Amino acid sequence: MGHLEQRYDEALAQVPRLDSEDDPLERRMREVCYLHLTRFVRMLLDRKDRLSMATGLEVRVPFCDHRLVEYVFNTPWSLKTFDGREKSLLRAATQDLLPRSVVQRVKSPYPSTQDPAYVVELQTQVRDLLSSDNNPALDLLDRARLQQITATEPGRITTAERNGLERTLDLAVWTDLEDPTLILSSGV
């Protein structure tokens, strides 16, 4: 089993289970929600903080209040989507408080940079990292694959490859800042 699969299995093992949860869809959506809350939301909140503070704004996220999150987390998926749409509970709870156009608005994903120059810059920075040969993160990365991605025409880069370039740079910065030590136990 590879590292990614092992970490995924470890993450799934942390998901709180309900004895009454025997529907496979309910079980899977609980896993997805848990992984989203414990892994992805932290990155989104960090990004929100950096982007808002860079412009002198303090952005509040009331739906991330831990009491609300804990309460709604244990709500069955069938109730969260009772009308066949995402955010059914939120829509129902706010229908008397907000204009209909707001309540019925289609969910939009977190915005990502669409400027093609962004991918070019990612490729340039990863190329620079690969040529520096002094960052400890390089020992953990597939250099050949990264070289292949940085040589790809920017318009042909997939979302997964773009995310890989971003995570590569994140890892490189983290290893620079934290200077971690990797201790391998014998027999591994």
Automatic annotation (TrEMBL):
<dbReference type="InterPro" id="IPR014729">
    <property type="entry name" value="Rossmann-like_a/b/a_fold"/>
</dbReference>
<dbReference type="Pfam" id="PF00733">
    <property type="entry name" value="Asn_synthase"/>
</dbReference>
<dbReference type="InterPro" id="IPR001962">
    <property type="entry name" value="Asn_synthase"/>
</dbReference>
<dbReference type="GO" id="GO:0006529">
    <property type="term" value="P:asparagine biosynthetic process"/>
</dbReference>
<protein>
    <recommendedName>
        <fullName>asparagine synthase (glutamine-hydrolyzing)</fullName>
        <ecNumber>6.3.5.4</ecNumber>
    </recommendedName>
</protein>
<feature type="domain" description="Asparagine synthetase">
    <location>
        <begin position="4"/>
        <end position="155"/>
    </location>
</feature>
<comment type="pathway">
    <text>Amino-acid biosynthesis; L-asparagine biosynthesis; L-asparagine from L-aspartate (L-Gln route): step 1/1.</text>
</comment>
<dbReference type="GO" id="GO:0005829">
    <property type="term" value="C:cytosol"/>
</dbReference>
<keyword id="KW-0028">Amino-acid biosynthesis</keyword>
<keyword id="KW-0061">Asparagine biosynthesis</keyword>
<dbReference type="InterPro" id="IPR051786">
    <property type="entry name" value="ASN_synthetase/amidase"/>
</dbReference>
<dbReference type="GO" id="GO:0004066">
    <property type="term" value="F:asparagine synthase (glutamine-hydrolyzing) activity"/>
</dbReference>
